[in-house]
Amino acid sequence: MEVDAGRGAGRTCCGRQRGGCQLIVEALLNRVELTGILIERKSLRFTPAAVPVTECVIRHESQQVEAGVERRVECGVQAIGLGDAARWLQAATPGTQIRVVGFFAAKSQSSKQLRLHITTIEFVEGNQNGQVLQEEG
User: Fold this and answer.
1) Contact (CB, 8 A) for 75 and 60
2) How buried is residue 119: exposed, middle or buried, by Cβ count under 10 Å (0-12/13-18/19+)?
3) CA 100, CA 109: separation in Å to the nearest integer?
4) Phi-psi region of 8 (alpha: psi -120 to 50; beta: other; left: phi over 0)
5) How far does the chain reach from its first CA to its final CA, in angstroms?
6) Of the candidates 47, 32, 45, 129, which has an alpha carbon nearest to the alpha carbon of residue 78?
7) Of the candidates 94, 89, 104, 95, which has an alpha carbon nearest to the alpha carbon of residue 134?
8) Whether residue 50 has pLDDT greater than 60
9) What are 8-36's pLDDT values in tens digits?
10) pTM of this structure
11) What are φ and ψ of residue 24, in 5° steps?
12) What pLDDT, in 10s, does the model give residues 67-83?
């Protein structure tokens, strides 16, 4: 497929001959759902605008199918919560199994390294019994 930059971002050309091309507007999507174990959590801090921030690492383990072959996935994901998400992360102790929803963004303007920004957190097991503690939006 060719990108049709002349007609706006997010539009692609289906590759047909000139004149028969149908433009398709694609939604920009950046949504991540991840389950794992909270293995590291830094102390609560505040931005200069007084927004609470908590940085953490979530360990994820699963079985995935790739190219028809099952593979084991094990990774540590750097994540950050701001606002209510930061406060809920502070309520979780390392070793807690959680499910998070969020989006990827660069760690900083000068870094290309990705970090998961948490918008929703759910405690999967333990005293919270799977209760959703923060809703998106």
Assistant:
1) yes
2) buried
3) 24
4) left
5) 34
6) 32
7) 89
8) yes
9) 444 445 554 555 555 666 668 999 999 99
10) 0.71
11) -120, 125
12) 999 999 999 999 999 99
